[in-house]
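Tokens as discussed.
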């Protein structure tokens, strides 16, 4: 699988690049000598120089100050695994990060990696997708250089019927990351969309490999419109869509945003493993504008209209149909 199988040497190189970036970040523009970097990293000065060259190749501007050392001047605009990982304070998610310039779908790549045994918390990020996937087999517009398309491997010990809970976990993490990175308020639309000012900003598509009684792995697929311009949206969208840039008027540093997202996802996953679905469900409900609202639900085989009463422990939408409760597992919600 071209571009995704990293050898041990590649992982070692990423580790040292990440540590050097963290040192530069901690020292905030200081000039740091090659000798000091060599001592801190436990490698030769020649190896330090090779890693500095590699960082420059990735798009970092690192100045060599004669007789003094190196100073970091600027970071690249493109997505870089080392930049995302540097200083990422997570327990599980993001210990291995793979950045691709383009792929068909990050979910496809990540699913194959998971089948090959990649560790829990592996993250695959693409700068562009040729066949981005949305819910119910729909496509996801995935232009280059402006958005986030990523997938994460989780290996929870749970029955397959409970795996849908992770969809609600990941959508809450996205809402948190948006609010930490912008002044915008993110609302959740069942089951897995993020809306800002009534327009869709993000969507999630989780896929699973399971046996009868256990989950082998779950792939969390996340697509967020970050710096996308209006003219980049398709004209045939089913629902109004927007981006964080359009709604806030400011471009975001995508590497920094992804770092925030992975931190929130890791925190929520840790809470989920320790305390179960309850805290995730409560936060999801607090971020939803659905409770008590009249809505039309378009399912594959029928359309229903009723009052939304929340979600159950498996994430099914609870719809009150004149006193009779209906559990809905999938469909499109239109508030009336």
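Sequence:
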């Amino acid at each position: 699988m071209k571009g995704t199988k990293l050898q041990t040497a590649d992982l070692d190189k990423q580790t040292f690049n990440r540590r050097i970036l963290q040192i530069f970040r901690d020292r905030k523009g200081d000039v740091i000598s090659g000798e000091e970097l060599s001592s801190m990293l436990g490698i030769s000065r020649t190896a330090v120089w090779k890693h500095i060259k590699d960082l420059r190749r990735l798009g970092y501007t690192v100045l060599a100050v004669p007789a003094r050392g190196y100073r970091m001047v600027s970071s690249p605009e493109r997505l870089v695994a080392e930049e995302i990982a540097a200083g990422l304070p997570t327990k599980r998610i993001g210990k291995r990060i793979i950045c691709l310039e383009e792929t068909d779908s990050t979910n496809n790549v990540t699913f194959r990696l998971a089948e090959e045994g990649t560790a829990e918390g592996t993250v695959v990020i693409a700068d562009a997708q040729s066949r981005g996937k949305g819910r119910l087999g729909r496509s996801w517009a995935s232009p280059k250089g402006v958005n986030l398309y990523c997938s994460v491997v989780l290996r929870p010990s749970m029955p397959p019927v409970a795996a849908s809970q992770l969809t609600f976990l990941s959508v809450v993490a996205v809402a948190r990351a948006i609010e930490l990175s912008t002044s915008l308020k993110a609302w959740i639309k069942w089951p897995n969309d993020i809306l800002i000012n009534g327009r869709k900003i993000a969507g999630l598509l989780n896929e699973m490999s399971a046996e009868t009684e256990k989950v082998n792995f779950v792939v969390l697929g996340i697509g967020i419109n970050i710096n996308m311009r209006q003219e980049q949206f398709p004209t045939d969208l089913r629902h109004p869509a927007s981006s964080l840039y359009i709604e806030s008027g400011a471009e975001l540093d995508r590497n920094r945003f992804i770092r925030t997202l992975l931190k929130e996802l890791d925190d929520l996953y840790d809470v989920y493993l320790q305390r179960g679905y309850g805290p995730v469900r409560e936060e999801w409900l607090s971020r939803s504008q659905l409770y008590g609202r009249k809505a039309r639900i378009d399912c594959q085989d029928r359309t229903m209209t009723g009052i939304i009463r929340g979600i159950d422990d498996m994430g099914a939408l609870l719809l009150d149909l004149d006193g009779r409760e209906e559990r809905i597992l999938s469909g499109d919600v239109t508030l009336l």
